Amino acid sequence: MKKNLKSLKTEKLNISYFEIGNENSIPVFLMHGFPYDIYAYKNVVQILKKNDLRIIVPYLRGFGPTSFLNKSFLRSGEQAALGKDLIDLMDGLNIKKAILAGYDWGGRAACVVAALYPHRCIGLISCNGYNIQNIKIDSITPDKPENEKNYWYQYFFHTKRGFNSLTKNRNDLIKFLWKTWSPTWKFSKKDFELSQESFQNPDFVDVVIHSYKHRYGLVDGDKSYSAIENKLSLTPNIEVPTITIDGLMNGVREPKREKNIKKFTNLIKHKLLKNVGHNVPQESPLIFSNLILEIKKYANH
Q: 143-191: per-residue pLDDT in tens?
């Protein structure tokens, strides 16, 4: 995928992205999560490239070659920043409307755009359901004990010890997250080696730490995203055609079925996948790809 990398400058970033397909075809953005990168979509791309799509897979801020344009910019990992990066990339590529698909951080970016800019979204594939955070409420509302246990890494990143671990033991920590979040996924040494370079981005640690502190209200966000964050605090409905996916072996959290019903007003289906964990596109690329092709049908509606 590195052979097809391109880059585009936005207001704050030089975004690196993989692209393949005809510019006149229906665009689809494939958004990776933490701690993964564009290679989560390697097999999805191989399937989708035969189906007349313009496929774009960006590196999120803090990952791979994507870089900040100014040392003074806050290395924010907040949800508003991720969503704004996606809409800025669409604007820079002169893409008015696209299929958006993602999981984890990337799924959050896709949900933000689908919720706040529905006219820019043909349809949405969202793993882990409704990914928009109501930080004022979520940061103080306790979850079930078993879910709180699974969030240990988020609380760990609130500490200096967690910062140091992510800095000094990065690869071992990420491998552990991969294993525990997707216990049935037998990733190879090569799978990890393809992605590990992305985690050496000089902003990786700062962006990750900020993300997990900001969502609990422990640090301020980037003021330039305040208007977007204020809109997201209302947890807006997502009106575009949507398919949600949950892996039943997800080691991070269980499926949130109620939010799928309440927050997606045009939910096509909610797909539950046996023996699949957190990293759905890499663990089940054929199913993920087929669901994108199902959403593609709505492009001309």
A: 899 999 999 999 999 999 999 999 999 999 999 999 999 999 999 999 9
pLDDT higher than 80, residue 260: no
pLDDT tier, 4 (very low <50, low <70, confident <90, very high otherwise):
confident
* Distances, alpha carbon 144 to alpha carbons 75, 127, 147, 148, 151, in Å: 31, 21, 5, 6, 11
List Cα–Cα distances, 212 to 34, 44, 191, 225, 265, in angstroms. Answer: 11, 28, 26, 17, 29
Tokens of 55: 């496929």
Strands 13-20 and 53-58: antiparallel
Side chain identity at 75, as an amino acid letter? R
What is the mean predicted confidence (pLDDT) over 135-144? 90
| Angstrom distances, CA of residue 31 to CA of 61, 83, 120, 150 | 11, 11, 16, 23
Contact 112, 284 (CB under 8 A): no
What distance in Å separates the CA atoms of residue 131 and residue 127, rounded to the nearest whole number? Answer: 9
Question: What is the pLDDT at residue 301?
Answer: 55
Q: Please, are residues 217 and 247 in contact by the beta-carbon 8 Å criterion? A: no
